[in-house]
Amino acid sequence: MSFPTTRLRRLRQTPVLRNLVRETILTRDDLVMPLFVCPGTNVRIPISSMPGNFNLSVDLLVEECRRLYGLGIQAILLFGIPEHKDEHGLVACEHNGIVQQAVRAIKSALPDLYIIADICNCEYTSHGHCGTIVNGDVHNDLTLVTLAKQSVSMAEEGVDMVAPSDMMDGRVGAIRKSLDENGFYNTPIMAYSAKYASAFYGPFREAADSAPKFGNRATYQMDPANGNEALREVALDIEEGADIVMVKPALSYLDIIQRVKTTFNMPIAAYNVSGEYAMVKAAGANGWIDEKRMVREILTSIKRAGSDIIITYHAQEIIKEL
What range does the record give for the signal peptide (predicted)? Predict the structure, then answer.
């Protein structure tokens, strides 16, 4: 039927009615808060390009987790800034690695807080790339060995989920095999399946001290122009045993989130990344936007596109409203 029999504005007349017919509901259960842990004691270093975020030593990280858990945040994604780095990122596999220390401390204080460990080498290599360098580029298969070791090390310390973000071919299968062989067959893998070589990662690289010392990551992260390739990447990760697949970044790739959800009907995570966060914060600080409304609109759009999990630095702000 058409106008005047059908008047779609009828369903917009009051807040109660708008809430009753709302199609997309954003809740605290959708959110994961990324956090950064660094060496030392009583260390709290502001991340200048990401206002409200910090590099925290383990002791202050536990306090921050306690605060976030009190707000209702139930899951975190943990990144580490190590005291020293090496050519292969093997420091990420050490029993006393910075993330391993943090996991033990958090689980001791907050056993019910869900900890997802990022699995990658860029924060841990002296050159800033995501794996072992051979002839000027990341060697795919050698890097798989390190990623598998890192994943097992994290599982041994009690992480609830591992999240490989490196974009090496075959890494989900290699990690799944190593986890299973070591008895961690119940540890889920959230794969950064469609991770693009994006300009939106700049603030994160400041936070994690992970900018590549030479070249770029275009030989392993995806071309932002490609969509069909994302579906191939996701299909391979699912075949290798991924439990959750991720699209990163989120805002410029809402079409990819929607295509992945429609094609595979898998649990989908989307990473609302540092550059997306920084742009909102900068515009809000200048009074150019209504920051609170914009954050809610952005996160709702990510969920509407098909994401079940939203990893976002806005989590600690939006959860107060939810």
Answer: none
